[in-house]
Design a protein that fits this description.
Elements: E1 7-9, E2 12-14, H1 26-30, E3 33-41, E4 44-45, H2 48-62, H3 70-83, E5 89-96, E6 113-120, H4 126-131, E7 133-137, H5 157-168, E8 173-177, E9 183-186, E10 190-195, E11 198-201, H6 212-224, E12 228-230, H7 235-239, E13 243-248, E14 252-259, E15 262-263, H8 278-295
Helix pairs in contact: 6-8
Length: 305
């Protein structure tokens, strides 16, 4: 974020260098915080209401009480876009539990500290969408018995370490399995595969954050006539996948053509292996159309066809 830009911190619009939170904030001392990352297209946030709904569900679970109403947060975002001169932006909404007290009982939890940032949208490389990305499989397991797994918390160091290792291996992302050897998610993404014409993605109970983009893809699959199912996925399912792609609010739909040394694609069509597949193309185009309908502005980039 440029020093000339502004961010919202606990009721004030300030430059990043001037932003402060309490030294006793539980987010700083204990990692007791939540966040949402999303995009704006042409000045309009995509599915802001759904991101805020997820934030508040997690807030109720962790007793992190955001005092600002949804309409107030929308107004904060609009003002940040204006003062920062942005239309296509990357937004982050962060809520921490507020100043740490000696008592952590629910009824004593203070109002959350809210931080909102809006910075220029820096998309993933267009090559990932045209030619497909490579991913690796991490040895570090997701714990599907940990309730925090299902929420977007600021305790993110494990995912960042796994993603760092993936980047060192020249991969775009790392896939994580749970303690029962079932696919859960990527470090920053949800995972879909296509097998025998069906779209498959792991169920939430296998240890994943249910992404807003993930929900949109399942919605679009029904709209374009692609049978979709949430089911547990093994490494063998991945090896037999005809297509594979990742989703999150920033990357949208990113095709994956290789994981580790394995080329993704139909076994009976060597020419199609290692290339983005037709179902991925169809859903990516449908996603572009959805964004255009809901925001009034077509997204930049996306999957080339």
């Amino acid at each position: 974020m440029d020093a000339s830009e502004r961010m919202y911190v606990a009721g004030k619009y300030v430059a990043p260098a001037e932003a402060t939170v309490s030294a006793l904030d539980a987010g700083l001392l204990l990692g007791a915080g939540l966040f949402e990352t999303l995009r704006t297209y042409g000045g309009t946030p995509f599915r802001l209401a759904r991101h805020l709904a997820r934030l508040r569900v997690s807030g109720r679970f962790f007793r992190i009480f955001v005092g600002e109403k949804d309409s107030e947060i929308a107004a904060i975002i609009a003002r940040l876009l204006e003062v920062n001169g942005l239309r296509d932006a990357r937004l982050r909404i962060t809520a921490t539990r507020g100043p740490l007290t000696e008592e952590l009982e629910d009824d004593l939890a203070p109002r959350a500290t809210l931080l909102v940032t809006a910075g220029p949208m820096t998309p993933y490389s267009p090559e990932f969408y045209q030619y497909g990305a490579t991913v690796v499989v991490s040895d570090i397991r997701t714990n599907e018995t940990d309730p925090a797994t299902f929420h977007k918390t600021t305790a993110y160091m494990t995912n960042l370490l796994v993603l760092r290792d993936a980047h060192r291996a020249k991969a775009a992302e790392a896939l994580r399995f749970n303690t029962r050897n079932r696919l859960a998610e990527g470090t920053v993404s949800n995972v879909f595969l296509v097998r025998e014409g069906r779209l498959l993605t792991p169920p939430v109970e296998d240890g994943l954050l249910a992404g807003v983009t993930r929900a949109a893809v399942l919605e679009l699959a029904a709209r374009v006539g692609v049978p979709a199912e949430q089911q547990s996925i093994t490494i063998n399912d991945l090896l037999e996948a005809e297509e594979l792609f990742l989703t999150n609010s920033i990357m949208e739909i990113m095709p994956v053509v290789r994981f580790e040394q394995h080329e993704v694609g139909p076994k009976d069509d060597a020419a199609a292996r290692g290339k983005p597949g037709p179902v991925t193309h169809r859903l990516a185009e449908a996603y572009k159309e959805l964004v255009a309908r809901e925001t009034g502005a077509a997204p930049d980039g996306g999957l080339a066809v």
